Amino acid sequence: QQQVKQSPQSLIVQKGGISIINCAYENTAFDYFPWYQQFPGKGPALLIAIRPDVSEKKEGRFTISFNKSAKQFSLHIMDSQPGDSATYFCAASIEYAGGTSYGKLTFGQGTILTVHP
Amino acid sequence: ETGVTQSPTHLIKTRGQQVTLRCSSQSGHNTVSWYQQALGQGPQFIFQYYREEENGRGNFPPRFSGLQFPNYSSELNVNALELDDSALYLCASSRQGAGQYFGPGTRLTVT
User: How big is chain A by its Cα radius of gyration, in Å?
Assistant: First the structure.
């Protein structure tokens, strides 16, 4: 059962454009939603994360928008650069289970972003 | 770059063999999680260790086992290797209430 669905599978954007990647989740117990960036041959790098008590979080050119009622969240990359070309993963987790940090991350399938110069 | 290190970088094993992968967590982190990432897929949770005990397990068979040591480093052991075990194995460290930071991974090839 795939609990986090990510779209699109691939995305091509011109330099300076806005890249938008969407995710939808099923488990309403999820309370932590990070985005990861992965370059070929490397481990995923934590980009930005949000908790459901806020609807938007911005860090530099990266913004997460969160819609709790729709069970959806998205990553916006403003002024996209060729160096942003990578695979992006959304994820979700339940941070606390019975007082002990659990944090099993459930990942989406990934979006391959290509930014053309 | 995170402070999470993994060894070895690459490994080639034969079906039926056993393998041990190692992970050193980032300073200040007491929790280690292991993930398997098949080519073109998102990482899949294997299990997590907190204070040297298994603290949650994904949908992986018992031939996947682990350890966490007092210094919070960890090992992933896989017995009776199968061809489908070929993947990138990722270790992530964290502390309560904070994000998970991944190491560079170990690429395992089973022939």
Answer: 14
